[in-house]
């Protein structure tokens, strides 16, 4: 499918082609509208990075590749050591790693707080502990890996804000894990959603997230994704 734009209508058509949306959890079907963060970073210059874990990295990467202001979104691992940052090892659930995505963004176009708003709203369910949908284990945990103290402050304030407002039916399970390195995943995991839009796993678990992004965040929706294959892994 290459870099062709994906619309909500096309997502619905793809879903129908492989059995529809009926089996999807309600969160995946609907997403959730949440308030903007009361605490955010001041707009800066230069590219920043947010490292986020929210279940299988295919869907999280796919969401942020469709967000205006994002210059790259790389699937990878965070939370463990370099020696164990490999898919088969991470899949054991014993490495300390989570499947994560490094989201590079231009703060002149979108703030760190708005990145987190999309993360909590449509990229995953932050109330699930050590799982997302069909995937279970600490490697699928909800976690934020702040790059500095400012990001950690914004993330913690936002979690506290959402919990206090009772936005979700359960407390947010997202952990904030500072001082952890990010390691890019194997090439075959990059741009996976774009390259495999009709794979049943992608259709059931991840395509609804794109439809929700377009519906809930129309101001930042981009039909043409920014792909790792067309950018630097370190951008």
Q: What percent of residues adopt helix (DSSP H or I)?
A: 25-40%
- β content, as a range? 15-25%
Q: Report the average pLDDT across residues.
A: 89
**Termini separation:** 24 Å
Please, what is the CATH homologous superfamily of one domain?
Peptide methionine sulphoxide reductase MsrA
Structure description:
The chain has 235 residues and is an alpha+beta fold. It has a domain at 44-189: 2-Layer Sandwich (Peptide Methionine Sulfoxide Reductase, Chain A), CATH 3.30.1060.10. The protein has helices at 8-17, 26-30, 57-65, 87-90, 112-123, 149-165, 192-195, 200-205, 207-216, and strands at 48-54, 70-78, 98-105, 131-132, 135-136, 142-145, 175-176, 182-184. The protein has a 6-stranded mixed sheet. Strands 4-5 form a two-stranded antiparallel sheet. A hairpin with a 2-residue loop joins strand 4 (131-132) and strand 5 (135-136). The longest helix has 17 residues, at 149-165.
